[in-house]
Every structure is written in C-alpha cells, then in structure tokens.
Amino acid sequence: MNERMPEATRPGLDRQPAAVTAMFDRVAPRYDLLNLVMTGGYVTRWRRAVTAAIAPQPGERILDVAAGTGTSAVPLERAGAEVVASDPSPGMLAAGRRRHPHLTFANADALDLPFADASFDAVTISFGLRNIGDAERALREIARVCRPGGRLVICELSTPTTPLLRAGHRAVVQRLLPALGRLASADPPAYRYLAETVLTWADQRALAAVIRECGWHDVEYRNLSRGVVAIHRGTRPMDAA
Ligand SMILES: C[S@@+](CC[C@H](N)C(=O)[O-])C[C@H]1O[C@@H](n2cnc3c(N)ncnc32)[C@H](O)[C@@H]1O
C-alpha cells in the first residue's frame, strides 16, 4: 500500500487555498444544518466519540484547528477546557461567533498558526485536514504548537471497511451527496468538491503513517460507522524539540 498521501491530496493540484476558503464562506450560514442532514444525524454521534477521544480536562488549553462554525469546539469548552476555535474562513468564523458568542475564535490557517510553540495541551481537527492543500505541513505545524506529551485527535471521513460498503459509499458520495447539495444549498460545486475530496483522501493506514512521519508518536486509529469516519490519535513525544 502507498503509505503517503494520494497525489490528489497534495498541494497545488486542485485545492487552491483561496478557493477552498471562499467556498466555505458561501456555505457557512447553512453549514451545520446541511452537515446534520447529509450525515443523517450521524455527525452528532461522531462528535461525541471525538470528545471522548480528546478527553478534555478542566483548565486544559485545547486548539480546534479548522473549527469552522465552532460546533466541534463546543463540547470541549463545556468540559471546562480553555478552547480556541481557529479557521481561515471569515464566513465560517462569523457564523460561529453568532451561534456561539461565548467561544474564543481565531482567524488562522493551519499552515501558519499564530500561536507559540508548545502552547496547547491538545490539538484537534474535525473534517478539516482533507480540505488543507498541504496536510503534511499542517500536521507538522500542529505538532509545533502542541506541548511535549500533548495529544492530537483527528476526525476525518475515511474508507469503509469492506468492499461492499466501499461500493455503496462511493455511490452515495458520488451521486446522492451532490444531489442533496443541489436541493439544499445554493452552492452545488461545494458538494462536488466534497465528493472529490472524500474519494481521493488517504485511507486509515496511510493517514496513520503520514501522522507518524510528521512528528507524532503512539499513533492509532478507530473506525466509526464501519470506517465511513475514522478518529486518529497521536502524542507529541516528550523529547520533541
Ligand atoms: C468541513 S469544515 C469542518 C468544520 C468543523 N471542524 C466541523 O467539524 O464542523 C472544514 C473547515 O476547514 C477549513 N479550512 C480550509 N482550509 C484550511 C486551512 N488551510 N487551515 C485551516 N482550516 C482550513 C474551512 O474553512 C472549513 O471551516
């Protein structure tokens, strides 16, 4: 198996950062609702699993990268952590600030985070890594801001575990999601983009290998909904420079 990111996830191909950010600006007002509808409500279940994997402790500093409207950050804050929800899309940030005025938001690109070295106890990213042109560079930058011994939790759409499920999943992603996107949103290209990024993204093992290469230890993953989604975890080594 190729344990690197597939070519389509590499920078400079079709994932131009400005175009991706502009697309999220456009879908921002309806993003959370569409997410709920298009996952058949499963996103709520996946978010609970992510929170359990992060195991936020009161007083911990946690960075939610590519946090969008902040929905992925809310349960961490409720657990008593000091959370920063960062994202480069002004539209997603504006929708988030309206919906969750108590959350701390920061306008930040994962490739150049405006935070000091080792300034967070844990860093998490939900459904965001796939959208970043250079995912490997983002994983190294995220490692920089995480303290030695700190945790990484990534939640991302992934590869279903059996050939039959993979075939059904491909049909849903290629046909049903764009059709739903056409019905429910004013931005059909956003849902074609979603289908493309899902079908070209690294599988569970390949992503785990890349996370290790980018400076994380004890990397492991857990499938949710039979691999439709996977949660990867890692730890920043104690002797990290
Ligand atoms: C599918 S949304 C996920 C939002 C949120 N984490 C959630 O779980 O609902 C993907 C997010 O990635 C953000 N994004 C795209 N490129 C990024 C980059 N280079 N750095 C950080 N975030 C980025 C987008 O602005 C968008 O808000």
Plain-language structure description:
The protein is of the alpha/beta class and about 240 residues long. The chain has one domain: Vaccinia Virus protein VP39 (Rossmann fold). About 45% of the residues lie in helices and about 20% in strands. The protein contains nine helices and seven strands, in the order H-H-H-E-H-E-H-E-E-H-E-H-H-H-E-E. The protein has helices at about 15-25, 30-40, 40-55, 75-80, 90-100, 135-145, 165-185, 190-200, 205-215; strands spanning about 60-65, 80-85, 105, 120-125, 145-155, 215-225, 230-235. It has a seven-stranded mixed sheet, sandwiched between helices. Strand 6 (about 215-225) and strand 7 (about 230-235) form a beta hairpin. Helix 7 (about 165-185) packs antiparallel against helix 8. The model is unreliable at about 5-15 (pLDDT under 50). S-adenosylmethionine binds near residues 20, 24, 67 and 87.
What is the name of the CATH architecture?
3-Layer(aba) Sandwich
Give the N-terminus to C-terminus distance in angstroms.
Answer: 31 Å
Q: Please name the fourth-level CATH homologous superfamily.
A: Vaccinia Virus protein VP39
CATH-derived topology:
Rossmann fold
Bound molecules: S-adenosylmethionine
**Total of helices:** 9
Q: What value does the average pLDDT take? A: 90
Overall helicity: 40-55%
How many independent structural domains? 1
Unreliable runs: 6-13
Number of DSSP-assigned strands: 7
What oligomeric assembly is this protein in? single chain
β-strand percent reads: 15-25%
Q: How would you sum up the global shape? A: globular
